[in-house]
Amino acid sequence: MSIVRQESLFSMQFLFDLEPTQRYDEFFSAIDISPILTIVAKKSNFGRPVELNYPAMVQALVVRIVERIPEIQLLVKRLNTDLRFKVDCGFLVSDPVPSEASFSRMITKIKDTGVLEEINSQIILDAINEEFIKDVNIAIDSGHFEARDQAPSKKEEKPKILPKKRGRKSKAEREHWLKEKEAEEAALSIFEKKIEDQLDVPYDELHDQMPIYPKWGVKKNSEGKNVFWFGYKGHLAVETKNQFILHSLISSGSLNDGKAAIPLLKGIERNYPFLELAFAMMDAGYDYEAIYEQVHRMKGYSIIAYNKKNESDPIGFDENFAPTCVREYSYRYDSFDKRYQTLKYTRPKECADCPLAKDTLCQMVYKIRIETDLRRYSAPARGSIAWQERFKERSSVERVIGYLKEFFQLNNVRYRTGERAKVHFDLVTLVYNGMKLASLRLARKQSSTNLVAA
Fold first, then answer.
1. How much is the pTM?
2. Has residue 17 got a pLDDT over 90?
3. At a CB cut-off of 8 Å and minimum separation 6, what does 211 contact?
4. What gap in Å lies between CA 345 and CA 287, rounded to an integer?
5. pLDDT at residue number 41
6. Superfamily holding 117-151+171-306+393-435
7. What's phi and psi for 286, nearest 5 deg?
8. What is the 3-state secondary structure (H, E, C) of the chain?
9. Which pLDDT value is given to residue 30?
10. Over the stretch 271-281, which tens digit does the pLDDT of each residue have?
């Protein structure tokens, strides 16, 4: 019986199948590490001479992610014992192998800058210029990963609340209470306020105020049970066709997923203003009016699962907010007029033999502008076959999160504090995008070679 080898669903598998030397050459051709070298290299000719090979050290950090080496200690050990691996990382045979402390000091220099985010943006710009990214459909979701820090007890001591004074407050007491409440709200950070407060805040301010210290997080698993972890969340905006990570953010594990959507969208708008957003796909955890408004401001259309929040059923409409006839049959979605931003619904098929078909109570056509309620109406119409097909593209971001955890060590944070964990997160997303670009370049080169040979 013959054995049939199944093709891998992992799009970078043929890049992993190459020899290490060839793999690293293809990979580092997609990543420009020179911005990192300007930060970690010695700034002056005076003082003690530097004996470390910083370009090779940066490449070794990247190779550690690619080769799934879990710790810096094991990376140093392999550099000492494997001469070929040492040369592949860029070291000379005569170069001394850096110690763990040397790698730690280099990471400390990197964490105070946004250099990894800049390199990641340059990779995306290269992919756009080479036409690997064209029509932009974005899927947004988050994945959790645990911190290296010691987790505090989940049972925190709550401060004792003094009993409230009974009865109505006097005028002076009420004015004093209102001033205290205003002062408390003013002292809150932007991520402690409501999501709609983020709409008019610039991206840089949102980025700087993002909480990145580890905290307890909770979410429901597939069985509906609560799963707790102490650590972080990685928020990703993924292009659905080739699955590039257009923008990524790290936050505390307790942050609501919806509060990271607007910063992600604004980051894409700032870094790539020439990209035209077509659709933004998200699950029900992002069903907030402010997110619909941000997507609409970017001239895109939201494909977000509806989350019913103690709302009564609309009268005259079905569960997907399509109008219904007198006999409560739903009108069928027909088309979308982009010029007037209008959805067109036609009579249901049951009207063919309905005695009220020619009555004035039943309309032939319904037209609804999506601006009347961006949350309920989108293009294509919610619940239609076209809407469902678009929503299926959301699985691309879940697939990318799985790749980052399985192949790129996202859930293997070896550093304490949120600032150093952010270096790990940014490095993981950078390596993923770099390998994605290298694999697409290699595939294009192979296809052109095959065409010439044919």
1. 0.88
2. no
3. 189, 191, 251, 252, 255
4. 24
5. 77
6. Ribonuclease H-like superfamily/Ribonuclease H (3.30.420.10)
7. -110, 20
8. CCCCCCCCCCCCHHHHCCCHHHHHHHHHCCCCCHHHHHHHCCCCCCCCCCCCCHHHHHHHHHHHHHCCCCCHHHHHHHHHHCHHHHHHCCCCCCCCCCCHHHHHHHHHHHHCCCHHHHHHHHHHHHHHHCCCCCCEEEEEEEEEEECCCCCCCCCCCCCCCCCCCCCCCCHHHHHHHHHHHHHHHHHCCCCCCCHHHHCCCCHHHHHHHCCCCCEEEEEECCCCCEEEEEEEEEEEEEECCCCCEEEEEEEECCCCHHHHHHHHHHHHHHHCCCCCEEEEEECHHHCCHHHHHHHHHCCCEEEECCCCCCCCCCCCECCCCCEECCCCCECEEEEEECCCCEEEEECCHHHHHCCCCCCCCCCCEEEEEHHHCCCCCCCCCCCCHHHHHHHHCCHHHHHHHHHHHHHCCCCCCCCCCHHHHHHHHHHHHHHHHHHHHHHHHHHHHHHHHHHHHC
9. 86
10. 999 898 999 99
Q: Are 117 and 111 in contact (CB under 8 A)?
A: no
For the chain, the structural domain boundaries read 13-113, 117-151+171-306+393-435, 311-381
Going by pLDDT thresholds of 50, 70 and 90, the confidence category of residue 9 is: very low
Give the residue from 311, 263, 250, 269 showing the smallest Cα distance to 290: 263
The CA distance from 58 to 35, in Å, is 11
Assign 154 a pLDDT band (cuts: 50, 70, 90).
low
380-403 pLDDT, tens digit per residue, is 999 899 999 999 999 999 999 999
Question: Which range (44-48, 313-317, 448-452) has the least confidence?
Answer: 44-48
Amino acid at 160: K
What is the rounded CA–CA span in Å between residue 238 and residue 243?
A: 6
Q: What sign does the CA torsion over 435, 440, 444, 446 have?
A: positive
